Amino acid sequence: METLFVILIGIVAAVLSNRNIAVFNDGLRPIVSEHIEGRLKRRELGLTAFAMSFGLVIGFGIPFTLSASIILIHSILLGTDIIGLATPKNKWGTPVAAVIGGLYGWGLIAGLEGFVKLFEHLPLNFLDPLGQVGTPVVVTFMAFPALAVAMQFSIKKGILTFVVSALVRQLAVWANTSAFIKIGGNAVSLNQEGMALIVGMIFLFTYAIKEKQEGASIDLASVFSDKVLSIKKNVVFFMVIGGLIAGATNLLLMAGDPISLNLLAEGKQTDAGIAAGARAIGFIPLVASTAIATGVYSPVGFTLIFVVGLFSPNVWLAVLTGAAVIFGEVMLLSYIARFLDKFPGVRNSGENIRNAMTKLLEVALLIGGANASNTIAPGFGFFFIAGFYLINEVAGRPIVRMAVGPLGAIAVGIIANILVALGIMVIPE
Question: Which of 250, 295, 391, 409 is the most buried (most CB within 10 A)?
């Protein structure tokens, strides 16, 4: 059943991409819209999709998937973006995209099991150290609201948000160690990162709602009503893939972001759900505005389906609830557009939240990659990651910063195995 879920997600996502209905890569939606309106040829669209997504699949999605043995959604949906847009949109192109998308999904889950078995036969099994790549992500994630506040409003407000968030985190640590909170005689343990994150988000949205817009507002929903209507016409497709992804998440087959993925790998499903929820809040302005402006939706919607999957008691309820949630999202697009227009600060915060998350992930993954590399090959690991990062910067960043740490750790693991096989390096204890 688990394999079937992944295969079906691959099929449906590839078809949605092929029919120009939905793509996962946020940057591709405006480009797909250009193709729909006749300003971009299909071949150019396919090449652009490959250039924008392939590096992220190899350098971002796959390393995280390997490090936790849980599929990061980027691994499958960025791939199906390429598959769908690279195949012609005609009577034979769409079935071909569906078949390739299904095979890709099957290969991803089958290959994952093969990779795990392969690591066991290596001279130096570096799968466990590779898991350290994501360790700093969970802790540093709580700082993104403060960074978003600093980026959008002011450094002073950002510092205030950061200090209060840090204080709340330490108060949560104290409350846990002293068993301060009890229910029915049983001590209640608070998630310290989660508490800090909630406080930071309260600060962010309080500032955002207070921000005023200069000049007349624009009713996005009325300007782009035809595009909103085209999205609503395809709501059944979104319900299908939304239900499938929510179900797969409930089975702990996949995660929507590196933070919740690492929490799931540590067995913290509730914490993963909280992190996924915070991320979803930040993505609502981005997904809604790009969808309304382009007529192209995201196969994961506002990413709330991951929250549904993590908090549902069983897989079938997750499927039904996920379908219902994404249906509600699509139907509410016009209202969301008007709300975002009424509070421009909230609309603008979506991009700042996304940028803040990206910057934090770049730093956290570089640290995590360095720690993992140094565990695999003490001394050499730090040397390699530092050199890899700096050379990538000088070369104009052909590899996105977020991918340097995970890719570098994998490279160190491969090099270390070669050195061990040659007798040049001793396996670290």
Answer: 409
